[in-house]
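Async update (no meeting this week)

Hi team, since we skipped the sync, here's where things stand on the single-chain job. The sequence we agreed to prioritize is pasted below, unchanged from the tracker. I ran it this morning and attached the output directly underneath so nobody has to dig for it. Comments welcome in thread, and please keep replies under the output.
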Amino acid sequence: MFRMVLLSAALMAAGQAQAKAPSARIVTLGTMAGPMASPVRSQPATLLQWPGGMILVDAGDGAVDQLARAGIDSVPLKSVVITHIHADHVGGLFALLTRRYQLMDPPITIYGPPGTKAMVAGLIAAMAPLRLTSPALPGAPLRDPAVSVKVVELGDGDELTIEGVRVRAAANTHYLSGNHAPDPASAQSLSLRFELPGRSVVLTGDTGPSERLVELARGADVLVSSILDLDAAVATIRTSRPNAPPAFFEAARAHFAQHHLSPEAAGKLAQAAGVKRVVFTHIGITPARMKTAKAELARTWRGPAVFARDLAAY
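Output:
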């Protein structure tokens, strides 16, 4: 009788654990803060995956190969969302489109901020020579690359449904820089919230401190946040401009602090939004500075946090 009680309790506990386990996962394909190249980290790309669906958020250089290394078949991929149009976040789009064209993969929809249509149109135009050569499969007809690619632009405050997943967008502060900020009608940097099966996930994209992002991330199960070591970023500039006046480096640090999240600022964001867990990607921290960065983070955030690795799942 006692053994039966123990077995029943164990089965119940296992059932509860399974019920609580999220049915969606976050695969960090590329975790490097671009555009610098790294031998151990690829350019920004994150896959949101759940039974029956997946969404690729950003497509940095190497994203297609990273999908393969993660053991993920990219053929069923139908949706790509771009947070903002910087080279490190879109550099892999051309490879994604050309490979799909040559392999005759199914159509794909690319969602992104203003400017995405023009960018994709340029990539499609660059694929024109592929139509003049033999198709990948003997006897297959030559096709217009544009036919299999759809583009949907979105901006601050937009809500939409992608593959049954509710998505909300909020413009953040990555592009804000006084009089140099672009017209929002032509360029925006977006943070995104995805209501995935079993868990809510917010991707900050590249951003500095942002009240709009705090509201977007309110109570999220997972905050996938960018992070940058401001002092290390300024030190890198010093090596290339050693004779610049001190005011130049002060301005550079202020610029980085407005456009990116330092460890301390990232912690404040997570704390203010009341998220349950933080996964850091787009990591602009050298291994030598990681201990210091974690200490800075601990000043403002004591909840669960992990610095993501390429090809890891969370």
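Quick observations from my side:
The radius of gyration is 21 Å.
Confidence is low (pLDDT under 50) at residues 1-7, 13-19.
Reply here if anything looks off.
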